Amino acid sequence: MHARQRMALARKVVDVFGGRVSCTLGIDVDGGDDEVERWFLAATLFGARISARIVGQAFHELDRAGLVRVDQARHLLWADLVRLLDQGGYVRYDFRTATRLLDLSERVHERYGGRVSAIAREADTYPALHAALDALPGWGPVTAGIFLRELRGVWDGADPPLDEHALAAAHHLRLLTDTDPPLTQITGLAHAAGLDPRDLEGGLVQLALRHAAHMGGCPGGPACAAINQGQ
What is the per-residue pLDDT for 230? Predict the structure, then answer.
């Protein structure tokens, strides 16, 4: 493919599959520590095997109730958290997640003075930051990855490798063309296409997740069925 074709395809990925999850939730992580706090709370909800739609609903229920920082959860009763999660449709994991939120809020309060931004001040490299997040109650590599990939350029240590799903989708669409590292290529392609690299990565992740069962039989590239049919 020519460069113009790759740029057009990159824009189509974002048009069809969306970009940053935080943006779809109405969170602007570039807007300061308070918005990062909201994204941290939302990312915590992705720790269970549950759809992004239900995570969004549950997050908005917590948000409407005034829970905008995970540190605030320690002031709520466990039953109140369960009720809010249930109202958002987060029923299957409501008990477990309410317990996780309480444990997490206590850890963030005791270890980081209640502010998530303190994690970034203590850990300003990717390995240190990933390890600090991975050690939090209810968190793990997947949650840390979701959280950090949308904080590229916001936190100094938020420089994870290109998400493995995004990498698979980029290969499937034949967006990678040379020997530079995949993240470098995706970043350059996004800038050339007038996109935020985080949006392109997020769109590629969603393409891979939704198209996984059919990717093997799909021609890929500009002829990708997922892109053209909006699957």
Answer: 63
Are 131 and 47 contained in the same domain?
Answer: yes
Provide the b/e sequence for 59-74 (b: ≥16 CB within 10 Å): bebbbeeebebbbbbb
β-strand partners of 153: none
Q: How confident is the model over 25-46, as a mean pLDDT?
A: 94
User: By C-alpha distance, which of 61, 66, 60 is closest to 83?
Assistant: 61
Asked whether residue 40 falls in the same domain as residue 128, the answer is yes
Tens of pLDDT along 62-84?
A: 999 999 999 999 999 999 999 99
Co-location of 136 and 213 in the same domain:
no
pTM of the model: 0.91
200 by DSSP, 3-state: which?
helix
For 13, 46, 92, the CA distances from 49, given in Å and listed in that order, are: 24, 7, 10
Q: Which of 48, 49, 46 is nearest to 27 (CA)?
A: 46
Check whether 218 has a pLDDT greater than 70: yes
Structural domain harbouring 42? 24-149
Q: Are residues 67 and 119 in the same domain?
A: yes
**Secondary structure letter of residue 27 according to DSSP:** -
Residue 53 lies in a domain: yes
- When pLDDT is averaged across residues 146-151 and rounded to a whole number, the result is 94
